[in-house]
Write a structure and sequence with these properties.
The complex is a heterodimer.
Chain A: H1 2-10, H2 16-24, H3 29-37, H4 42-50, H5 55-67, E1 122-123, H6 137-140, H7 145-154, H8 159-162, H9 173-201, H10 209-233, H11 250-254, H12 258-283, H13 287-317, H14 322-342, H15 344-355, H16 361-385, H17 396-399
Chain B: H1 5-13, H2 23-26, H3 44-47, H4 93-102, H5 121-137, H6 140-149, H7 157-181, E1 190-191, H8 195-203, H9 207-227, H10 236-266, H11 271-285, H12 293-304, H13 310-335, H14 346-349
Helix pairs in contact in B: 4-7, 4-10, 5-7, 5-12, 6-7, 6-9, 7-10, 8-9, 8-11, 9-10, 9-11, 9-13, 10-13, 12-13
The chains are: A mainly alpha, B mainly alpha.
Chain lengths: 404, 358
């Protein structure tokens, strides 16, 4: 009934004469109405009806008139872009680096185009802006971004089927709860990465498509890590734990430029998360956990590799930003230290896991001190590898964890 | 075995023991669960047990608290999320998320690049023009969901996880069509600048608006084109590219259709609003125009088998366009928007087959 009314509305513009003629020839009125609205002359429709065309034949005639390309212009084939490119697959297949040849490999320091024009193609003047905000190569670039993208795809895994979940065996309640608490924290962190990267990926202009592609893999990894640690928390007679205090996430949320976010996620916080992944791999109570943490650490190594290379590229090409980057790191360190101080659940869970159970939590705290010191050492090593000597300027509250 | 409070008390009294809280260890929260893998492994649906599976109708917190964990008072907010489940949800999100993970592929190694042989110049140029268009437009379906991720509450995380797989798929699509354009002696050609309709997707202020325009309309059209890629492809590599991309796009379209259905079922008052979004989108997305004439011509050449065969190409391109419009209408019917048939943009309505008799 509702459809009939809608049909009546849609066909209201047909003149009575044309309506009568169309109905007598069993032509669908919506087709007649659509033809009129699309600009087909009413006389032409009368002509088609009088000629005895079936509705299907008439539709063909009208459609050809409306949508066919009658003559090829070939203007698009005469644009001034580089020709003769014949990229060949290497031993890793046809990679994104393999196709970066000739002018297609020229990644300009400033990308001048606000459209979705692929690098190396031509776009007509007057095309509208797509609202990107990042047009400076140094803001996003890392020289390893193409190879990391391809590696991420080659090393894909699925938590549903690549983790031997059947190897998980019941743990004591304290250790299962501690594992659930750790998984909860890792889920929260990875969710924050999804929120943050989703926002930034859209800001990167098309001149740096390799970065957009690589960030897509990081988003994908973060989703997989969120999923995998949620699954671990809920598959062994346990549960998720208490929500974290969340200070660590605030500077990531607040970052106002891409390089700020990148320093916080890919250098500072990922460095600390990577230590947790490696610890989880070493502590693995069973094959499933060992594999889960090892695969997650493999992914995280790529994120850190990008983070360090990006920071190095930024500092080499915009050395005047050195102190700015240091301040971003310090802000992140301040909040991370606040997390350590204000969140007993995370540190106590780690102490239980490190000690081997609640009864050995004291021993676990001793090990946690050593673990924290190593976390900071690894982080500072990465910052140094990126070209920033930060050992003397690390935020004091975090530096306090350096001493064992 | 429950935690023995006496053990905790004993620990607290030990010398050199840091101050212990341990309240998290004894806090009663949602019950413990023991999810077990099924025949597809341990899937998201397998762990959606009891409260852990209850995606609330309204997400009431602005933190990163994951669904089923125990709330901590005083936690800072991480953003403003779309609160209403009906504004973002699709019942198939978990299923297509898991499918996406299982069906990832690599443009570097899963395409038989060696099957590409030199083609007549005009055909190679036409293929490259199509690839330029797809390299240009595919990642709109990465940028657009990307900008919405920050508004998806962790209470509705399944949608965020699915959208992330879509971003990944689109990255691979951008990548594979760029690779094809640069693999056989031509290169990238003219970007269409078909950005009016695509800007409309980025401009959407509402998730359902974005999804209807992108998943149902734009990706639906692309999906139909990929599925008829056999007629465009000139070799096994291109056939494989279209086949794999079509498989990915099916998930994207599937999410859009199921989301639209969920909205229409749970917020039927939004029907007219959705029609308005589609009215504008169809008008902008529109018919062959100057903006995408390069693509149209390239399709005629590839489908016809050369410049001298454009009548055949035109016939096939017309069949493709009709198929696109009819499949679009079918998806709308599945979503519960069958009345769209009578108010569709004339350019599309012209292409529709008569409705099946009821």
């Amino acid at each position: 009934m509702a459809d009939t009314t809608a049909e009546e509305r849609a066909t209201a513009s047909i003149s009575d004469e044309l309506r009568r003629k169309a109905e007598s020839r069993d032509w669908p009125l919506p087709v007649v109405a659509a033809a009129l609205q699309a600009g087909v002359d009413e006389a032409l429709i009368h002509e088609a009806l009088d000629a005895g065309l079936t509705p299907a034949e008439a539709r063909q005639v009208i459609l050809k008139r409306l949508s066919g390309v009658e003559k090829l212009s070939m203007k698009w084939a005469r644009v001034d872009t580089e020709r003769g490119i014949r990229a060949r697959p290497g031993k890793k297949g046809l990679t994104i680096d393999d196709i970066n040849v000739g002018s297609y490999a020229d990644v300009p320091d400033v990308w001048p185009d606000q459209t979705m024009r692929p690098r190396g193609s031509y776009v007509k003047p007057g095309t509208v802006s797509m609202g990107y905000t990042i047009y400076a190569k140094a803001e996003v670039w890392a020289d390893n971004v193409g190879s990391l993208y391809e590696e991420a795809i080659q090393r894909r895994w699925a938590p549903a089927t690549d983790i031997p979940w059947e190897t998980i065996a019941p743990l004591s309640e304290d250790r299962e709860r501690a594992m659930g608490q750790l998984c909860t924290a890792l889920c929260e962190y990875n969710y924050m990465v999804i929120l943050a990267l989703g926002k930034w990926i859209r800001e990167v202009s098309f001149g740096y498509h390799e970065v957009k592609l690589y960030l897509s893999t990081v988003l994908f990894d973060a989703a997989r890590h969120f999923e995998a640690f949620r699954k671990r928390a809920l598959c062994n007679g346990g549960r998720l734990g208490v929500q974290g205090v969340g200070w660590q996430l605030a500077p990531i949320r607040d970052a106002l430029c891409y390089s700020e976010m990148a320093a916080l996620v890919f250098v500072l916080n990922d460095s600390f998360v990577q230590s947790l992944y490696q610890l989880g791999g070493a502590l693995g109570h069973n094959e499933a956990e060992a594999r889960l943490f090892t695969l997650a650490a493999q992914d995280k190594a790529r994120h850190l590799s990008y983070g360090v290379e990006h920071m190095r590229y930024l500092l080499e090409h915009q050395p005047e930003r050195r102190e700015e980057v240091r301040r971003y790191l310090q802000k992140g360190e301040e909040y991370l230290a606040k997390d350590f101080a204000d969140d007993p659940s995370s540190r106590e869970a780690l102490a239980i896991l490190l000690g081997g159970g609640l009864e050995h939590i004291g021993e676990g705290f001793q090990k946690l001190k050593t673990f924290r010191a190593r976390q900071i050492q690894s982080y500072l090593d990465r910052v140094e590898a990126a070209g920033l000597d930060h050992r003397g300027t690390i935020w004091p509250a975090l530096a306090a964890h350096q001493s064992v | 075995m429950a935690i023995d409070p006496a053990v905790i008390e004993t620990l607290r009294k030990q010398p050199d023991m840091p101050e212990l809280d341990l309240s998290w260890l004894t806090t009663e929260g949602p019950p413990a669960v023991n999810a077990k893998p099924g025949r597809h492994g341990l899937t998201l649906d397998d762990i959606n047990i009891g409260v852990y599976g209850d995606a609330p109708e309204v997400a009431r917190h602005g933190t990163t608290r994951v669904r089923g964990s125990i709330a901590r008072p005083g936690v800072i907010r991480t953003g403003y999320y779309v609160p209403e489940k009906s504004d973002i949800w699709a019942d198939n999100a978990t299923l297509i998320y898991e499918e996406a993970l299982q069906r990832q592929w690599s443009s570097a190694t899963d395409i038989p690049w060696e099957s590409i042989e030199p083609l007549p110049d005009e055909v190679e140029e036409a293929i490259c023009q199509i690839c330029t268009f797809l390299t240009e437009v595919e990642f709109i379906a990465g940028d657009a969901p990307g900008q919405w991720l920050k508004q998806i509450s962790p209470d509705h995380f399944e949608v965020a996880l699915y959208l992330v797989t879509q971003v990944m798929d689109e990255a691979r699509h951008l990548d594979v069509f760029r690779k094809r354009a640069l693999a056989n002696g031509c290169g990238l050609l003219e970007a269409t600048g078909a950005t009016r309709g695509l800007r409309n997707i980025l401009d959407a202020k509402d998730f359902t608006e974005m999804s209807a325009l992108m998943h149902v309309l734009a990706e639906g059209f692309v999906q139909t084109m990929f599925r008829t890629g056999e007629f465009i492809a000139q070799n096994e590599a291109e056939k494989m590219i279209f086949r794999l991309c079509a498989q990915d796009e099916s998930r994207h379209v599937g999410f859009g259709v199921m989301h639209l259905r969920y909205v229409l079922q749970h917020a039927p008052e939004r029907r007219e609003e959705i029609h308005h979004y589609l009215d504008r989108a169809e008008q902008l997305f529109g018919h062959p125009s100057d903006a995408n004439s390069g693509l149209q011509e390239a399709l005629l050449i590839t489908m016809g088998g050369g410049k001298d065969n454009i009548d055949k190409g035109a016939e096939m391109a017309l069949a493709l366009t009709k198929k696109q419009a009819n499949e679009y209408m079918h998806r709308l019917e599945v979503a519960g928007l069958a009345d769209r048939r009578y108010r569709m943009n004339p350019g599309f309505m012209m292409l529709l087959d008569p409705p099946k008799k009821r």
